[in-house]
Design a protein that fits this description.
Blueprint lengths: L15 H14 L2 H11 L12 H6 L3 H10 L9 H16 L5 H16 L4
Helix pairs in contact: 5-6
Protein name: ABC transporter substrate-binding protein
């Protein structure tokens, strides 16, 4: 998704030399130049705002300015104990609609009934 990411860490239970090398690798992988390469060749959203302004990236991806605005406005999903269950319902029903197994209207009605049941909503 637009909002999310990767985490990089150094294992505290390795030799000092390996920790040093891991930190050096992390510094490289999070550098502006690496952000640019990942965005240009692997469609990774740059975590560094300045990378969106790089003319090389703007030339390679004319939609990068739109993506920057999306990233700036992105908000985390609401926290819910039902989130995974609701996601499964929506994925299943949307897939059924896309595959032509149900009409979009049928899939939405089914999804609504299932989500209401999961969350205890009564009509």
């Amino acid at each position: 998704g637009t909002l999310g990411g990767w985490q990089l860490a150094v294992n505290a239970h390795v030799s000092p030399e390996r920790r040093r090398l891991a930190a050096k690798l992390i510094a490289h992988l999070t550098s502006p130049e690496a952000n640019l390469v990942l965005a240009q060749h692997y469609a990774r959203n740059p975590p560094r705002p300045a990378v969106y302004e790089d003319p090389r990236l703007r030339e390679a991806d004319p939609f990068i300015a739109d993506l920057k605005r999306m990233v700036e406005r992105a908000r985390p999903r609401p926290v819910s104990p039902y989130y995974n269950l609701i996601s499964d319902v929506l994925q299943s029903e949307f897939s059924a609609a896309v595959a032509g197994l149900r009409t979009p209207e049928e899939s939405l009605k089914r999804a609504q009934r299932q989500v209401d049941h999961l969350t205890g909503v009564r009509e």
